[in-house]
């Protein structure tokens, strides 16, 4: 009971309201928490969002690209699944191609507002997402995004910030300060459908709490590890206060009827600038390979 009260107090009533930005261990030790001091309150760019009680059925067509590592595979300290690593030069070419073709990256808040409020999106919108919270995201990805005036969402595994190869708490704050969205990818990246109810709450609500402590405000964007979810997992994600959640299922349509199961398009190691343009133009459909996410 005491643990439940502490979790509720830390969440601060985030429930069905959220925030926007500019554009499994059940008893983890302190050393595994994201490096941060006390909650200092939200930044000046923070604003709350709220899901209507009875939202109209509405969907928007937005390609959401999924990346994982952006690194030279031959020099990776810990080898990833090969298809989840994109070489830095290839990634830079892909972003340049999107820019030349006049695609405009959007934030999670823009997607949310388009879904629920009918807000206008750029003529060629695309949402970039990066899973797992690798250090590549601040070293390799951020400079390219800034060069092209792009924004993206970074889904971080909140209890890996002390591990080599992953973003530190300070680097996560650097991404947010640069105008990027930060989302949760659980605490330790388990398959959520295999967990007990208490372990599921720890992974989902716990990742919300970790990021709130780190950033000074709730986060409202979530990605399922391995793309695995069921009704109980969706309920846990909603209860934790997340407003939008992404899967590894292929597709380009986000709907108010299924805001916690939004599809994405996997960008693998074999992708080129031309194939990425094909993905966002809808000429190629792609779901993530088994075991990714």
What does this structure look like?
- With 293 residues, the protein is α/β, with parallel strands linked by helices.
- Helix content is 31%, strand content 16%.
- The chain has 8 helices and 14 strands.
- The strands form 5 sheets. Strands 4, 7, 8, 9, 10 and 14 form a 6-stranded parallel sheet that branches.
- Helix 2 packs parallel to helix 4 (136-147) and helix 2 (88-100) crosses helix 8.
- The two termini are 33 Å apart.
- Residues 1-32 have low confidence and may be disordered.
Q: How many separate helices? A: 8
Question: Could you spell the SSE succession in H and E letters?
Answer: HEEEEEEHEHEHEHEHEHEEEH
Please indicate the percent range of residues in DSSP E strands (runs of 2 or more).
15-25%
Helix content: 25-40%
């Amino acid at each position: 009971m005491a643990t439940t009260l502490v979790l509720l107090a830390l969440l601060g009533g985030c429930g069905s309201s959220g925030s926007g930005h500019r554009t499994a261990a059940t008893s983890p030790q302190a050393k595994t928490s994201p490096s941060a001091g006390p909650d200092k309150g939200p930044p000046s760019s923070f604003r709350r969002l709220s899901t209507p009680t009875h939202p109209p059925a509405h969907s928007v067509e937005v390609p959401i690209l999924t990346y994982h590592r952006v690194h030279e595979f031959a020099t990776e300290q810990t080898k990833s699944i090969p298809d989840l690593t994109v070489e830095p030069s290839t990634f830079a070419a892909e972003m340049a191609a999107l820019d030349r073709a006049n695609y405009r990256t959007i934030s999670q808040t823009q997607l949310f507002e388009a879904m629920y409020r009918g807000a206008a999106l750029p003529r060629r919108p695309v949402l970039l997402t990066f899973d797992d919270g690798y250090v590549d995201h601040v070293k390799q990805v951020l400079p390219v995004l800034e060069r092209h005036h792009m924004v993206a969402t970074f889904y971080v595994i909140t209890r890996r910030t002390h591990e080599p190869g992953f973003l530190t708490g300070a680097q996560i704050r650097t991404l947010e300060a640069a105008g990027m969205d930060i989302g949760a990818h659980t605490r330790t990246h388990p398959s959520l459908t295999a967990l007990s109810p208490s372990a599921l709450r720890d992974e989902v609500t716990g990742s919300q709490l970790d990021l709130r402590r780190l950033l000074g405000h709730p986060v409202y964007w979530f990605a399922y590890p391995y793309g695995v979810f069921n009704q109980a997992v969706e309920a846990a994600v909603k209860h934790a206060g997340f407003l939008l959640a992404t899967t590894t299922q292929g597709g380009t349509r986000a709907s108010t009827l299924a805001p916690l199961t939004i599809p994405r398009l996997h960008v693998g190691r074999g992708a080129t600038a031309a194939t990425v343009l094909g993905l966002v133009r809808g000429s190629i459909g792609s779901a993530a390979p088994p075991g990714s996410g």
